[in-house]
Recover the amino acids of this structure.
């Protein structure tokens, strides 16, 4: 029995073997090696620098910041991975994020409900705003032929400008020189865990990731999504309605992005501040995580947490070694470069094998 268990775990087609052969793992290892060369070039000691990244992000003083940052990165990674699983690229995460945030702020400020209901209404308003705006990008593709990549990206700019206008004029806090709304009423906020900055928003994002994992692996819709991503022509032949699927996936993607925006407003400092939701670049970090994992649900979640740890740990590394924290951003970029190069090499090798194969084997 023990031998059979080890065989399943470490056999030729085991999860461990597949993980060790993963392009994502190889890309991360290569990026860490390149980062070590950068550190040596600056006179820093690589082991100590990487140790400070780990202790600064996962140690007692840093785990709270990592989870707080991970809430946004994980949520946006899931949001962008949902359509990517079907071969669709949603580049409008920033616009959907800020619309979700400003919708949550307006709801929390002006909807006359008890605090718990106001929180729920603000979350739903943020999700609805993000979903509708992302669905509009899908309509542009389905009805007007505008590629989703283009429509989603370009629609972000009017969304961010509209949210900026609201924060600077109709919803602006009187007497403040900052472009921000008033603070949400007392109690209209997400509960935090103890004295940390980690809120229930992390639980909501983890639940969204869990639903994504379950739907991808256990539902007919998940199968249709995977099939469309692998071979759109075959999926269409099998009866998958591509325009309808695009609309649904973009709506779900926008809803999750809007949820992240609402969580940001319902957490400290409990208001919408123009530019605060997009300044950290978590949308693009989430996109990087989804790309690294090829939009696989569990891999996307792990990649998002990895990048969150890098982001927070970079500050600790900067303090310990005087190496700029931007090195962690370089590592993220190198991971994607190595991943793209390895995938390209794999595709070329598969093409050569297909060309060499006898006609009877094709």
């Amino acid at each position: 029995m023990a031998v059979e268990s080890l065989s399943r775990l470490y056999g030729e087609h085991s999860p461990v073997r597949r993980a060790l052969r993963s392009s994502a793992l190889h890309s991360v290892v290569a990026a860490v090696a390149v980062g070590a060369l950068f550190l040596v070039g600056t006179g820093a000691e690589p082991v100590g620098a990487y140790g400070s990244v780990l202790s600064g992000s996962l140690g007692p003083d840093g785990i709270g910041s990592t989870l707080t940052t991970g809430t946004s990165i994980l949520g946006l990674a899931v949001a962008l991975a949902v359509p990517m699983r079907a071969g669709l690229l949603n580049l409008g995460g920033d616009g959907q994020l800020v619309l979700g945030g400003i919708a949550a702020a307006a709801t929390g400020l002006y909807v006359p409900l008890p605090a718990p209901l106001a929180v729920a209404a603000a979350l739903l308003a943020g999700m609805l705003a993000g979903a509708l705006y992302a669905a509009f990008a899908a309509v542009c593709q389905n009805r007007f032929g505008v590629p989703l990549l283009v429509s989603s990206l370009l629609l972000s700019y009017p969304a961010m400008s509209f949210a900026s206008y609201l924060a600077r004029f109709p919803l602006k806090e009187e007497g403040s020189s900052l472009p921000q709304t008033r603070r949400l009423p007392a109690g209209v906020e997400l509960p935090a865990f103890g004295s940390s900055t980690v809120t229930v928003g992390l639980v909501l994002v983890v639940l969204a990731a869990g639903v994504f994992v379950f739907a991808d692996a256990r539902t007919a819709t998940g199968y249709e999504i995977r099939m469309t991503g692998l071979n759109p022509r075959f999926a269409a032949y099998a009866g998958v309605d591509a325009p309808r699927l695009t609309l649904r996936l973009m709506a779900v993607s926008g809803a999750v992005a809007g949820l992240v925006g609402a969580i940001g407003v319902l957490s400290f400092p409990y208001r919408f501040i123009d530019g605060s939701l997009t300044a950290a670049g978590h949308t693009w970090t989430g996109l990087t995580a989804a790309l690294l994992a090829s939009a696989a649900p569990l891999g996307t979640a792990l990649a998002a947490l990895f990048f969150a740890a890098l982001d927070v740990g970079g500050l600790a590394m900067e303090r310990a070694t005087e190496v700029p924290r931007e090195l962690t951003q370089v590592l993220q970029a190198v991971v994607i470069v190595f991943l793209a190069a390895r995938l390209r090499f794999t595709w070329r090798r598969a093409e050569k094998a297909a060309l060499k194969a006898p006609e009877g084997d094709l």
